[in-house]
Amino acid sequence: MAQKYQAVLCDLLTALLDSWSVWNKTAGSEETGRIWRAEYLRLTYGCGAYQPYEELVEQAAKNSGIAPSLAKELEQNWLALDPWPGVVSTLTALKKTHRIGVVTNCSERLGRIAADRVGVPFDIVVTSEQAGFYKPHPRPYELALEELGLPAEQVLFVAGSGYDLFGTAKVGLDTFWHNRIGLTSPAGAPAPMAESAEISDVLQFVATTQ
């Protein structure tokens, strides 16, 4: 029987990389880092059409009562991004039978740096800057499908944030939520097809979904 999915797309900064630790370290504490990041997420999810990522990160710092200079420090710490446990082995296994890619709420420059930090070559990297919109607007997902040349029903999306579920539902992408740190699903978010704290569970999901 032919496999259902020909490609697997992933969120980058939450599903594949532990960007949380980098934000927290830059902010000086986990509590401050989470406040700053939550405000940044609010700004990106709310702005729709792309506004410079780096400027939104700085504005989020200002809104949170954090020194705006930390936004530049966060950029400098970008090279400290590391993949979650199991990410490299899972993507390496997927790559043998599927095309793989990422769709990330990031600038083109920082998105490419972050993708390289995963350590597994991607077939496509789609950033919000490239797409012209931030997720969960449908456009970044649609652009990824266009670059793959595949219909949505042949592609699995691995979400990192529950907000991805709004966007993937709009374009018809089956979604596996790699909820590594136990995030709460946003109110009204469609349910994922599967959810796990372990990304390696994607392999079994792909193998058993026909």
Description:
The protein is α/β, with parallel strands linked by helices. Helix content is 46%, strand content 13%. It contains ten helices and six strands. Strands 3-2-1-4-5-6 form a six-stranded parallel β-sheet, with helices on both faces. Strand 2 (99-104), helix 6 and strand 3 (124-127) form a beta-alpha-beta unit. Helix 1 (19-27) crosses helix 2 and helix 2 (30-47) packs across helix 3. The longest helix is centred in the N-terminal third of the chain and has 18 residues, at 30-47.
Quote the beta fraction: 5-15%
- How are strands sequenced across the largest beta sheet? 3-2-1-4-5-6
Cα radius of gyration in angstroms: 16 Å
Give the total of beta strands.
6
**What are the low-pLDDT stretches, counting only 5+ consecutive residues below 50?**
none
Number of helices in the DSSP assignment: 10
Helix content: 40-55%
What is the string of SSEs from the N terminus onward? EHHHHHEHEHHEHEEH
Distance between the first and last residues' Cα? 8 Å
Q: Biggest sheet, in brief?
A: 6 strands, parallel
Mean pLDDT across all residues, rounded? 95
Which outline best applies? globular
Structural class: alpha/beta
List the defining traits of the structure above:
single chain; 210 residues; alpha/beta; 6 strands; globular
Task: Please outline the helices and strands.
Blueprint: E1 7-10, H1 19-27, H2 30-47, H3 53-63, H4 70-76, H5 87-95, E2 99-104, H6 108-118, E3 124-127, H7 128-131, H8 138-148, E4 155-159, H9 164-171, E5 174-178, E6 194-196, H10 201-208
Parallel strand pairs: 1-2, 1-4, 2-3, 4-5, 5-6
